[in-house]
Amino acid sequence: LEKKSRPPVLWLHFQECTCCSESFIRASHPVVADILLDAISLDYTETLQAAAGHQAEKCRDDTMKKYAGKYILLVEGSVPTGADGAYCCVGGRSAQDILKEAAAGAAAVIAWGNCASYGCVQAAKPNPTDATPIHKLIGKPVINVPGCPPIADVMAAVIVHLLLFGRGPELDAQGRPREFYGRRVHDTCYRRPYYDAGMFVDAWDDEGARKGYCLFHMGCRGPVTYNACAVTKWNQSTSYPIQSGHGCIGCSENGFWDASPFYRH
Ligand code: SF4
Ligand code: F3S
After folding, report:
1. Rounded CA separation 182/187 (Å)
2. Is the CB of 120 under 6 A from ligand 2?
3. Does ligand 2 lie within 6 Å of residue 229's CB atom?
4. 231 and 110 in one domain?
5. What is the pLDDT of residue 265?
6. Which residues span the domain enclosing 92?
7. Each residue of 58-99: pLDDT tens digit?
8. 132, 158, 179 — which closes off a domain?
């Protein structure tokens, strides 16, 4: 990776909560500082850059002109198409406008998180802003890296794959990297033996909860969720929701926000 030149990267933010950025800066394989300082040239990102206002906009525009067809575009957030895009504007321009221009010259486009991949909670019924995933707005392939947020090391790995091989990883039918979204949380969960044995938590403070039994009766969506949480875990491989005693809410799946209830009890 060190021998490769540092390709320019633009990171756009639209309708989102910035949890994808928060996740990414905790990447440990590789460490995020190594990616930002040695592997890529992050020319524009509203949350991490020092520049602001016109200087920042100029930076983005200069990169789009100078490296047309060569830069990597990362997008965090869904794009509201309602009210002519007025719900989300940056520098006086609509998110939709900015996205289309930036995507046109990008060598690769990555959708970070469930917002950019599927719409997420902003798209919850009745979707008042017409929050739209980016693959529906640009005429080129998008690598979807869903999750709310996506796992830091998965985000880092997708970028590193692009840099090392000059192409994106193999994707599934929903545009997600198979390597990380090819297995159900349920099939990699350490509580799975309890599921198979019919040993369940039936109340948050019952004996089963104290013993770490399966959370399926409490609403766990691990059986219908594809993500690598149980394998890579979070926060430098410390834990993941189920290990913390909470069922999976399916945060990497399309439509999870409307598939209520999250809890069965
Ligand atoms: Fe499956 Fe959830 Fe039970 Fe784990 S806790 S075995 S993911 S139902
Ligand atoms: Fe999300 Fe379920 Fe993982 S809620 S963080 S996909 S365990």
Report:
1. 10
2. no
3. yes
4. no
5. 64
6. 8-179
7. 999 999 999 999 999 999 999 999 999 999 999 999 999 999
8. 179
Over residues 42-46, the mean pLDDT reads 94
For ligand 2, atom 1, name the residue with the nearest CA. Answer: 251
Give the pLDDT confidence score for residue 2 in this predicted structure.
Answer: 59
User: 233 with 239: CB under 8 angstroms?
Assistant: yes
DSSP helix/strand/coil, 250:
coil
Are residues 42 and 113 both part of a single domain?
yes
Could you tell me the distance, in angstroms and rounded to a whole number, from the CA of residue 240 to the centre of ligand 2?
7
- The CATH number given to whatever domain includes residue 239 is 4.10.480.10
185, 186, 189, 262: residue to mutate for ligand 2 pocket, most atoms within 8 A of CB: 185
On the question of pLDDT at 3 being above 60, the answer is no
Q: Is residue 77 a part of any domain in this protein?
A: yes
Ligand nearest to the Cα of 152, by number: 2
Which pLDDT value is given to residue 30?
84
Closest CA to 72 of 99, 48, 95, 40: 40
Task: Give the single-character DSSP code of 121.
Answer: G
Q: Is 120 annotated as a binding residue?
A: no
- Predicted local confidence at residue 261, as pLDDT: 79
Last residue of a domain, one of 179, 194, 214: 179
8-13 and 41-45 beta bridge pairing? parallel
Spatial distance between the Cα atoms of 109 and 63, rounded to a whole number of angstroms: 15
Task: Report which protein residue has its CA nearest ligand 1's atom 8.
Answer: 216
CATH of the domain at 58: 3.40.50.700
Exposed e or buried b per residue across 145-159, where buried means at least 16 C-beta atoms within 10 angstroms of its C-beta: bbbbbbbbbbbbbbb
Question: Are 51 and 170 in the same domain?
Answer: yes
pTM value is 0.95
